[in-house]
Amino acid sequence: MSSTVVTGIGELVTNDPTLGDSSLLGIVRDAAFVVEDGKVSWIGSSKSAPASDQLIQVGGKSVIPGFVDSHTHAVFGGDRVRDFVGRMTGEKYAAGGIKTTVAATREAGVDQLREHTAGIVGELRAGGITTFEIKSGYGLDVQSEAKILDVANEFTQEVTFLGAHVVPAEFASEREHYISLVLGEMLDICAPKAKWIDVFCDTGAFTPEESCRILDAGMARGLLPRLHGNQLGHTGGVQLAVEIDAASVDHCTYLSDEEIGSLAASNTVATLLPGAEFSTRSLYPDARRLYAAGVKVALATDCNPGTSFITSMPWVIATAVREMYFTPAQALHAATFGGSQALRRRDIGHLGVGARADFVILDAPSHEYFAYRPGSNLISRVIAAV
Ligand code: NIG
Ligand code: FE
């Protein structure tokens, strides 16, 4: 078994508060670590680093865990640039625009979707994301949802069935029939292709009652629940997510003190998606309220053509710091450890002994540079365990 030592690290972010400076990020200075069999097997000071088969000399730069992007809609056809331009000149976002992407995605062949997704995934990885989730939800018929899930499975193990994204146009006057399709034939075909089930529980999409039925049916088939909630108002998504012990409730643009209290008392992660507020010109939620209450927080890209055509976690961090009042340390933690909690994974999102050796060497002396130097490429090298 070959070993690699990564040494000369000015700032090693481990996300293990028992290490180094005992902070949230568990920062070890003048650090080294050893990788064996795709896992971290030793952490210590550069001076005491053991001899290994290979050596990566970092030259005083910062090393962080690979980003964990727990929310993307990376498989889709077409674009929605016209919607975006409209919103920048005053139009309001409503879930209705999804139908444009549904039409383009139904039209696209598997090869075309695969090639397009490969481009998006290349961007995610180049920005330091080493684990990412992908949802369906732009097919909304049995065959197209299955096609999206098949493509998603070629790129990640974290695949989510989102047949209940919105009611498609052809079922507009028979929404109960669409829900029956999702609960029946669509789940029959799609459940074996996914790990998670998600519902867009919001105005213009599904009510909490409908969402609960759909999530229950998915859970009965072994899928794990997560939820889009509270993007467009206090629409009951957070409460439902907590009640069913969803791994995560995503968006949380609107949060009452009561909703924050129930999140804090739960195992459900609040996943904030600043790309969506940016691209829909909405007000950003204030992360200080979540941290003060002790809520588990993640940051994700929400990469999708309608409301967040964003693949850069460094951009997400910079925006979260500037607009959502995360500290740079909280934002980095949310984009790494928070993402792993939102996917209920213990092997990623940190660099303690035993963790998967997914890490990013920065072209900067500290993680604080993500917010300090927004727009500059600070990713020097991305290394993902195989
Ligand atoms: O996460 N909010 C719901 N779904 C997506 C965007 C859907 C769309 O407009 O294409 C989101 O923002
Ligand atoms: Fe989303």
What count of helical segments does DSSP give?
13
Give the distance, in angstroms, between the N- and C-terminal Cα atoms.
14 Å
CATH architecture of the largest domain: Alpha-Beta Barrel
Number of domains: 2
- What gyration radius follows from the Cα positions, in whole Å? 21 Å
Tell me what portion of residues adopts beta-strand conformation. Answer: 15-25%
Kindly provide the name of the CATH class of the largest domain. Alpha Beta
Question: In which range does the helix fraction lie?
Answer: 25-40%
Ions, cofactors and other bound molecules = N-(iminomethyl)-L-glutamic acid, fe (iii) ion
Shape: globular
> How many β-strand stretches?
16
Structural features, described:
- By secondary structure, the protein is an alpha/beta fold.
- The protein has 2 domains: 3-66 and 349-383, Urease, subunit C, domain 1, CATH 2.30.40; 67-342, Metal-dependent hydrolases (TIM Barrel, Alpha-Beta Barrel).
- It has helices at residues 81-88, 98-107, 110-126, 142-153, 175-190, 208-220, 237-243, 257-264, 274-279, 287-293, 313-324, 328-342, 369-372; strands spanning 3-13, 27-36, 39-45, 54-57, 62-65, 67-69, 129-135, 158-164, 196-201, 224-225, 227-229, 248-251, 269-272, 297-299, 359-362, 379-383.
- The two termini are 14 Å apart.
- The mean pLDDT is 97.
